[in-house]
Amino acid sequence: MALSERKKQILHAIITEYIRTAQPVGSRTLARRYKVGLSPATIRNEMADLEELGFLIQPHTSAGRIPSQKGYRYYVDDLMEAPDLEEEVRDKIRQVYDFEKLKEIEEIIKHTSNLLSLLTNYTSLILGPQLKKSAFKKLQIMPVDHQRGLLVLVADTGFVKSKVINLPQTLSPGELNRIVSYLNMRLDGLTIDKITSSLIVELRRDLYHHIQFLEDTFTLLQDSLAEDERRVFLGGTTNILNQPEFGDIEKVKSLLSLFEQNSLLATLLSRPVAGVKGIVIKIGRENILEEVHDCSLVMATYCLGKEVAGTIGVLGPTRMDYAKTVAVIEQVVNHLGRL
């Protein structure tokens, strides 16, 4: 819907002020604080029109106005301008993604989750990569003592699975190296879901002299597949308690209960952005779960290598600072891509 420039100016000012204060906004506040060049009476008329069009709500007869879901949607689609992040914020992001310190994907995601909640003061949710779509990279065995070794499976997305195994006493170090090299050669580049039962039977046949050692290896591979529920990493779950919109204890209990349900959170993060790159903003009832109908979720996919691996999200009240949140997520996604 096309709005006049005057109505756009007033709607932008109301949303900016409401994000800042969480209080209904009146015409005198706009006239005094935002220098719109209009009298309070003219502003009131424009506010009444915006309310009639569904962009604003008046919670009480004598109160000012607050944005509706429709108002927020118009704001993020047509009025919002991404701010330039302060250099201090950019420095914090750069420091977290120190290439020398972060090695494994789970560690990277945990750091990212904490960073997002710290910089936005909202709750962060990150959908981790899907293991079965990760490609086999390397199998390695590191001796623990003369009888045991640590079997390590590494995927291209940074997943690391490990298991302590018993080493056959008849197996020389040279034979062990040859077996590991053979498995690395045969499995190289295969995604985990391509390491099928028939392939495992074939590998067993090729290396039948070392059945027990292979059983431990294949058990680790199969256990990895069995654990493939995509994990959601959370940060700043109590930040939601700091928002005045969530003074209702039932709302808070509903959200905190949701935060404990990994499969529902994975659904919330995966469905809205399937196949979509860039920032996606779901406002209020646009979210598929009733528990977050009073919230907004800002999301973006992130890549590992050239493939989309998961979703980064920030959950806050519909009154969230969309512009800053979008800018922070964009910076984080860029750093993740390079990392």
Secondary structure elements and their pairing?
Elements: H1 5-21, H2 27-33, H3 40-52, E1 56-57, E2 66-67, H4 69-79, H5 87-96, H6 105-120, E3 123-127, E4 136-143, E5 148-155, E6 160-166, H7 173-187, H8 197-206, H9 211-226, E7 232-235, H10 249-258, H11 262-270, E8 279-283, E9 295-304, E10 307-317, H12 322-338
Antiparallel strand pairs: 1-2, 3-7, 3-10, 4-5, 5-6, 8-9, 9-10
Helix pairs in contact: 1-3, 1-4, 2-3, 5-6, 5-12, 6-12
Can you offer a commentary on this structure?
With 339 residues, the chain is an alpha+beta fold. The protein folds into three domains: 5-79, Arc Repressor Mutant, subunit A; 87-129 and 230-338, 2-Layer Sandwich (Beta-Lactamase); 132-226, Heat-inducible transcription repressor hrca homolog, domain 3 (Enolase-like, domain 1), CATH 3.30.390.60. It contains twelve helices and ten strands. The strands form three sheets. It has a five-stranded antiparallel β-sheet. A three-stranded antiparallel β-sheet has the order 4-5-6. Strands 1-2 form a two-stranded antiparallel ribbon. Strand 4 and strand 5 (148-155) form a beta hairpin. The radius of gyration is 26 Å and the shape is elongated. It starts with a helix and ends with a helix.
